[in-house]
């Protein structure tokens, strides 16, 4: 039972990333009808927001420390972070230690701006174009963003450690321990997902957006500028992906190709959950994460070598053959 619980926790951990990215993808597809293959790049940009803030907080200057000398007896020059000059040694060190959670404050406005520029500058020109054209242009954009990040940050992964207080493991059940930050990530993902659903369900803005997703023309005839609301939803979807990337950094060190690593799997999650279905995207994300976790066990990989690499795609094939609209997709979607 302990081993089963650990695999479920592992699945919820990875499923949280799948669910958050798939949620953003579904928001964009449901509102704008756009297949956005640049969404994985938004996840990557979020992760590098944490990297950028970490570097900014670590900026330092050299001072002469009379208490330390070299082998000739000369005082040594040491680097002192500016934060410690401004806020004191303990407070400055604490701010540096919590750089990843603090990066959320940087990522939200950055991702909103990136989403707005992407939608207004490029995506809006492809609303009425075939999905194949949308895939090609957004995939090309993803490659461009990936290469820009590679140019400025390098090709090697960059560590963004979790705060010291959230490192180590916690006892989930008697005799069962699990990394604290992974638990934090799952709780963070659950809060973001709940927040998005609450926004769509209980606010006037969200209700108009849901109405626009169901019947865009009728909402427009009521005098509501639904396009502006959908542009905001694109920015919201970009923010969700970016926040997922920020908090995922301590689990998997950010690198320039991390967006591509999650992109295809997230699209599979969307298809399994049902194109345009927000609950389906979240449910499929967690279910496929758990399934992938169990498929990665020693017993599974020994019995069926490589099953952990293809299990998600096998499930997608079965779903498409038996229920093309996905687990929770609307009837008629992808069933023509």
TrEMBL record:
GO biological process assignments: amino acid transport
Alphabetized GO MF terms: transmembrane transporter activity
Matches recorded under InterPro entries: ABC_transp_permease, BCAA_transport_permease
Leader peptide range in chain numbering: none
Alphabetically ordered keywords of this record: Amino-acid transport, Cell membrane, Membrane, Transmembrane, Transmembrane helix, Transport
Primary location: membrane
Protein name as it appears in the record: Amino acid/amide ABC transporter membrane protein 1, HAAT family
Keyword S-adenosyl-L-methionine among record annotations: no
């Amino acid at each position: 039972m302990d081993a089963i619980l650990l695999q479920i926790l592992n699945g919820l951990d990875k499923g949280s990333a799948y669910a958050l990215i798939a949620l953003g993808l579904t928001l964009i597809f449901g509102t704008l009808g756009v297949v956005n293959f640049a969404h994985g790049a938004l996840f990557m940009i979020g992760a590098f927001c944490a990297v950028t803030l970490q570097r900014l907080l670590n900026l330092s200057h050299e001072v002469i420390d009379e208490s330390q000398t070299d082998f000739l007896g000369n005082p040594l020059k040491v680097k002192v972070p500016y934060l410690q000059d401004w806020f004191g040694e303990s407070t400055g060190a604490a701010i540096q230690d919590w750089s990843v959670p603090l990066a959320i404050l940087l990522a939200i406005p950055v991702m909103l701006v990136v989403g707005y520029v992407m939608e207004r500058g490029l995506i809006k020109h492809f609303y009425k174009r075939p999905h194949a054209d949308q895939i090609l242009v957004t995939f090309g954009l993803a490659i461009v963003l990936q290469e820009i990040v590679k140019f400025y940050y390098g090709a090697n992964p960059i560590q963004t450690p979790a705060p010291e207080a959230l490192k180590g493991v916690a006892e989930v059940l008697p005799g069962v321990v699990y990394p604290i930050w992974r638990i934090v990530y799952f709780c963070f993902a659950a809060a973001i997902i709940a927040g998005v659903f609450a926004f769509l369900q209980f606010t006037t803005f969200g209700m108009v957006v849901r109405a626009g997703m169901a019947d865009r023309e009728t909402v427009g005839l009521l005098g509501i500028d639904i396009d502006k609301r959908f542009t905001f939803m694109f920015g919201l979807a970009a923010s969700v992906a970016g926040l997922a990337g920020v908090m995922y950094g301590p689990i998997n060190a950010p690198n320039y190709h991390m967006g591509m690593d999650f992109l295809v799997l997230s699209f599979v999650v969307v298809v399994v959950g049902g194109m345009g279905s927000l609950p389906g995207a979240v449910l499929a994300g967690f279910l496929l994460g758990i399934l992938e976790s169990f498929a990665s066990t020693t017993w599974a990989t020994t019995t069926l070598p490589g099953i952990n690499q293809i299990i998600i795609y096998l499930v997608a094939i079965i779903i498409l053959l038996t229920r093309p609209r996905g687990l929770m997709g609307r009837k008629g979607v992808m069933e023509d």
